Amino acid sequence: MPCLQQAVQDIVAAAPQRVVLSVPRAGSGYRRAIVTPLADGWQVERFTATQAFHRNLPAGGLAAALVALLEGEFTQLTARAAGREYRLRLTKKGKVLVTQSPVVEIRVPLVATPPAGANGAAGEAGDSTGGRGEGVFPLQHDRPKNLPFPEGAAIPPLVDIGVFTADGRVVAAKRDKYRQINRFVQLVAEVLKTDLPAKLHIVEFGCGKSALSFALYHYLTQTRGLQLEMTGLDLRPDVVEASNQAAARYGYRHLRFAVGDIADYQTDAPVDMVIALHACDTATDLALAKAVQWNARWVFSVPCCQHELNAQMQGGPLSILTRYGLVQERVAALMTDTIRANLLAACGYKTRLVEFVAFEHTPKNIMIRAEKTRQPAAVRQKALDEVQALCAQFSLRPCLLGLLQAQGVLPAAPLA
Questions:
Q1: Which of 142, 245, 377, 407 has its CB surrounded by the most CB atoms within 10 Å?
Q2: Helix, strand or coil for residue 342?
Q3: Domain encompassing residue 318
């Protein structure tokens, strides 16, 4: 069995494109860390529940930094390099378990992209090559002309955050961010096809440094020509101030940012769309409950750090799913997002779980995408019944269910 230093050095020697550290140790102040390459080294981004901290490493400093992070903050590492996926896990007894497996790319047939609708909506994300043949997901095989932000378009916000150079070329170290931005905007564009309000009102919870906020605002106003009011909410005053200054600099008159907590935020204007990307643990539930309370038409959420149900799970007849900590953690995370999707369906939303970005970029890659529709009563009841059955089986008390019951949206009867 390899020692930690040797195991990490072997992974670093394979030249990983990205490293994700997760499963924090008890007492750690961080939820996860992401390591990405720079032109002359590496950037380490560590996330708490409300903040992100960055530091740069020299080219030869990656192995020592990863060992320090694993010894002090985290117990799991995932990396992809040279067509293989590496997983390193530290057990409670201090053993180092390393596995690796080939990365299999699944090719799917693509068809010609349908013409844009009356509002200029793009085709489905998987149809973006504009011709017949085969493509490989994610976006690196899309033809640039069908991306919301093709190469060659020097969009000021994306230049400022280092995704584009001044002449519109994609910076090599930011190509993952470039794909993420395009993917997010594509997923939003797919639903904004017909029957749109005269002016869209969008609220984004936990906007952070607002890269996706600026990209979406630019696309909807400049490319689609839509009228909108967009508000980004975050807990950090310095980040909010910097984002407001940037919005003013770009001339984005209807994009503003505010300091505030999801639970306390109120608005008198009708909200058409709620966005919550990587809100930690039950902060996602607060955002989804707000969307239901406001009767928002569209919801986009990429949950993160699903700890709540993991602490509650009791397997009963299915105790095999709670016997191994790693399995329980992953099952709990999937249950959390499944329950959230079903509860939105019970509130009248047509809900899908879609892959946001490829797994090598982040293990938290599921997006909940929901649109308010006239769901039949039987469909809504079935969705709620399925939640109740799952909760009864594993003794779960989901935060979102309690919030929706408190709002009176869902019945407050105890679970069977």
A1: 142
A2: helix
A3: 178-186+193-407
Give the integer Cα–Cα distance in Å for 74 and 398.
26
In terms of pTM, does the model score above 0.85? no
What strands lie across the sheet with 200-205, from one edge to the other?
Answer: 255-259, 228-234, 200-205, 273-280, 298-304, 366-372, 349-355
Largest alpha-carbon pair distance within the chain? 63
Residue type, position 376, single letter: P
**Number of domains making up the chain:** 2
Closest CA to 255 of 278, 298, 221, 290: 221
Quick one: tokens of 186?
A: 């594509």
What pLDDT shows up at residue 103?
62
Residue 108 has pLDDT above 60, yes or no: no
Sheet holding 32-38, edge to edge: 52-58, 41-47, 32-38, 18-24, 74-81, 84-90, 96-102
Please state the rounded mean pLDDT for residues 109-131. Answer: 38
Q: Is the residue at 125 inside a domain?
A: no
Q: Which of 102, 137, 156 is a domain's end point?
A: 102
273 & 367 share domain: yes
Q: Give domain status of residue 248, yes or no.
A: yes
224, 201 Cβ separation under 8 angstroms = no
Tell me the CA distances in angstroms from 41 to 17, 38, 46, 91, one per residue in order.
Answer: 12, 5, 17, 30
Per residue in 203-248, pLDDT tens?
999 888 888 899 999 999 998 999 999 999 998 899 999 999 999 9
Whether 90 and 215 map to the same domain: the answer is: no
CATH code of 318's domain: 3.40.50.150
CA atoms within 13 A on the CB side of 341: 17
